[in-house]
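Thread title: Can someone regenerate the structure for this chain?

I was given the following input by a collaborator and told the matching structure tokens would be attached. They weren't. Posting the sequence so someone can regenerate them.
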Amino acid sequence: MAKLIEILLGDIYIQSFIIGLILAAFLSKLSKRTNLNEPPLVYYRIPLIGHTWSYLKDCDKLILESREKYGETFSLYVFGQIMTIVGKETIHEVLKKDQDFSFREGINMQIPMHLIFVHLTLTEENFKMVRDFVGGKLKHLISRLQKNIINAIDFHIGECVEPKVISYPRKTLTDIIAIPVANIIVGEECCNNEDMLETFKNLTFSLLKLFRIPRILSFIHPWLHQQIITITLRFGWNPFSKHRNLILNCIKPVIEKRLNDKKRLGDAWVDPLDALQCYLNDPNVAPDFNPNNINYDYIADGIGRLIFASIATTSSSATQVLYDLIERKQLYWQELYQEAQEINKQCNGNELTFNDIARMVKLDSFVKESLRFINPIVTLPHKCISKSYFTFANGYQIPSGRIVGLNFRDTNNDEELQGQNPTEFYAFRHLERNSPATKLERNFLTFGGGKHACPGRALAINEIKIFIHKVLLKYDVRTDNKEIEAKKKIFRTISCASRC
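Best answer:
Regenerated them for you:
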């Protein structure tokens, strides 16, 4: 009996502690006020819930109405915390002031990368490595890139002498994109490994499953939700661990062979063109080219982070471009097909060069317009990391720790920035402005801005253009589902038939 009473008392103490913690968090939010000149907080009726329901149900309406009433800078109460929304005039202050705003810390509050890729301690160096590798070597990678895209198309789609139905285009595009990306990241020796390819295809989706827990506890305090979604990571269960082990098993013998060959051949050694070799050329990772001193875990986590950042975004973007092309087939297909034929004729049906791809100006503009429309309404969360507060040029101030969301609709729907009819899809809008898809501009925020803009954007755009170019020349594509809601577009079925 005494033991039972002790257990019951223990349970009561635990419950009391949890209730006290919840009340303390709630009261601290109610009492938290600042003397800053903060942006106006949009009116809401329901305590705790705030704008969350409207934000999830009809974000477009909420943002547009708030913009009209409060101006381009305002705040919402979403998932238990105040989030400041900035529009076209203020977005670039956030993107360019790295000392005051951090995208990395902002995204970590949603997806805790620092707890997943725990060995990737030199994150800034990893970013620079990607930027320098892609920017400096892309011209030399084009041959391998298109060869692997062609092989992937042949394998996953085929000749289609008889029409072929592709029920899950997004998955097929992921499988196709994984092959050339694997070749560029882990090199010729590893990219054909079946287990490695499966990691490239599935890594992002397996990690995102961990963070599908409803954010109910955020209404009490965001800290509580953070504890729930990270509890498995903090106690040692990491869904990336199995992928890390697989990557390590694949790259270790390759690394050892490369280091031995470099030692044996000396000046005759030629560095392979892939991200794996870039890690080996980093003295912080491979200080003396001794296989026993290589920071293998850092390399594996770096490769994992590259996969996470590249595969899902590129495949979803390529899928969206393909759907937009099919939807507007009568308007643009023939003109883009003629451009593809002309370029193919000029290179005599041989391998495309970097300059050949650059001459796909109509396709480039189409891709950019498609990416402009794929943008979320509010995205790229940045955390204010100023010591105490930050003051925008418009005079509004926000405290350190505040999350700032970028209002892409304010940029995308602006006639001054986009030209006439900004809410309508016009494929050659960017061609007329002489604005390629990789160019960072105030009117195109898909790849971010400032020095931390997406370092792999040129690679992604070239992959998409090569893929669409080959599809135009080889297939006649249509959708089987003619009337489906736009937001479900990614799940449509498509049919491919040979043009021959």
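Residues 52-498 form a domain with the Cytochrome p450 fold (CATH 1.10.630.10).
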